[in-house]
Write a structure and sequence with these properties.
The protein has 319 residues and is of the alpha+beta class. It has 14 helices and 14 strands. The strands form 5 sheets. It has a 6-stranded mixed sheet.
Length: 319
C-alpha cells in the first residue's frame, strides 16, 4: 500500500532545489547522457519529456528509508512549520552523477544521489500542529528529517487529505485483491478503507498499465489521472464472483462526463455493442454530449460483459 514520505526542505539549498527541479521539471533530453539506461523508464513514465525530481544524501538511515519508497507514495514537502506541497512518486532510481549536476554537493561532499521522480505536484498549506494531530505526534513535533511513515500513520494522512494516491501505486497481487474484495463489507472503518484502496489499485493496475489510456465510451485518450475504473454493474449489487471478475465487470471511463453519464443512467451499451443514450434531458448541453456518444461502438466485445450491461440497462439506464 502507498506510504507517506516526509521531505523537509526549509534551508536555502533545499528551497533552491525545489525551485530548480520540482517547480521547473528536469529535461530528460538535456540530461540523457547522465541518465543512461534509466532514461527509457523515465521516458515511458513522463511522455512530456520532463520530470520533477528530488533526492536524498547517503547519510544516516537515508538509503534504508529511500529503499522503502515506491511508485504511488505521497511526498509531503515541509518548511517553516508548514507542509507546503505534495507530489506522487512515479519511480525511484540511484544516480550519483546526475545528482551532482543538478544539485552539487553538501558541506560534507555528498550529493542527493538517492533520487525519485514525481508527478501530480500540488500546493498544500498544513501546519505542523495540524499534521501532528492527524498522526498522533506531540503537537510541537517538527519535521526535520527525511522520513517514511508507517502504513497506519500513512493511512491517517491519506484520510485527512482525501487525496488519490492510488493512480501510480505498485501492483496488487490477485490474492491480495481477492482477499480485499471478500473482506470489505465486514471490516471496521479504517480496515475497510485499506481494503477498498487495495481493490481500487488492483483495478487501476489492470486497466491502466501505461501513463495514458482510452475512455471506453467516448474513445478519447487521456492521462490515467483523468480515467476511472467504472463498474458496469454496481459493485454493491455484485456477487463475490462478480466483484472479482475485473476483466469484465469494469471499464475505463473518463472524468469529463462519461463516468457520471454511465453511473446516472444516461448512457448504456446494447447487446450489439453500440452505445445507447437516454431521451431528451431538458438540458441542451447534456443532450449535445449524449448525441456525441450515441451509436459509438464499445471496443471490448467479450460476451462475458453482456450480462453486466444487461443489468445496467434494466436497473440504471433511463432509456
Amino acid at each position: 500500500m502507498p506510504l507517506v514520505i516526509l521531505q523537509p526542505s526549509g534551508n536555502k539549498g533545499a528551497r533552491e532545489h525545489y525551485r530548480d527541479t520540482i517547480q521547473t521539471p528536469v529535461s530528460l533530453v538535456d540530461y540523457a547522457s547522465s541518465l543512461g539506461s534509466q532514461k527509457s523508464t523515465l521516458d515511458a513514465l513522463f511522455p512530456t519529456g520532463t520530470a520533477p525530481m528530488w533526492g536524498v544524501t547517503p547519510g544516516g538511515r537515508n538509503p534504508q528509508l529511500w529503499g522503502r519508497c515506491s511508485a504511488g507514495d505521497l511526498v509531503l514537502f515541509a518548511a517553516n512549520k508548514r507542509i507546503f506541497g505534495s507530489g506522487t512518486v512515479r519511480t525511484t532510481f540511484h544516480n550519483e552523477p546526475l545528482a551532482r549536476i543538478l544539485w552539487g554537493e553538501d558541506a560534507e561532499g555528498r550529493t542527493w544521489e538517492y533520487m525519485y521522480a514525481l508527478d501530480d505536484i500540488r500546493p498544500l498549506d498544513v501546519s505542523y500542529e495540524e499534521f501532528n494531530r492527524w498522526v498522533g505526534y506531540n503537537e510541537r513535533a517538527v519535521i526535520q528529517d527525511f522520513r517514511v511513515l508507517s502504513q497506519e500513520k500513512s493511512d491517517l494522512v491519506f484520510a485527512a487529505l482525501d487525496v488519490d494516491v492510488e493512480i501510480y501505486g505498485t501492483p496488487v497481487s490477485p490474492g491480495d485483491f481477492r482477499a480485499a474484495a471478500t473482506r470489505i463489507p465486514d471490516e471496521l472503518d479504517r480496515e475497510r478503507t485499506t481494503q477498498q484502496r487495495t481493490e481500487s489499485r488492483y483495478i487501476r493496475n489492470h486497466l491502466f498499465p501505461s501513463p495514458t489510456a482510452t475512455c471506453d465510451l467516448c474513445g478519447e485518450v487521456f492521462p490515467c489521472a483523468f480515467l476511472v475504473g467504472a463498474h458496469i454493474k454496481k459493485r454493491a449489487a455484485c456477487s463475490h464472483a462478480e466483484k472479482i471478475d475485473i476483466p469484465n465487470v469494469v471499464m475505463a471511463a473518463c472524468v469529463f462526463g462519461c463516468d457520471a453519464l454511465f453511473e446516472k443512467g444516461y448512457v448504456t451499451v446494447a447487446d450489439n455493442w453500440s452505445i445507447r443514450v437516454s431521451g431528451s434531458t431538458g438540458s441542451a448541453a447534456l443532450d449535445k454530449r449524449l448525441a456525441q456518444l450515441a451509436g459509438r461502438s464499445f471496443p471490448h466485445r467479450d460476451a462475458l460483459r453482456l450480462p453486466y450491461f444487461l443489468w445496467h440497462r434494466n436497473n440504471t439506464f433511463r432509456g
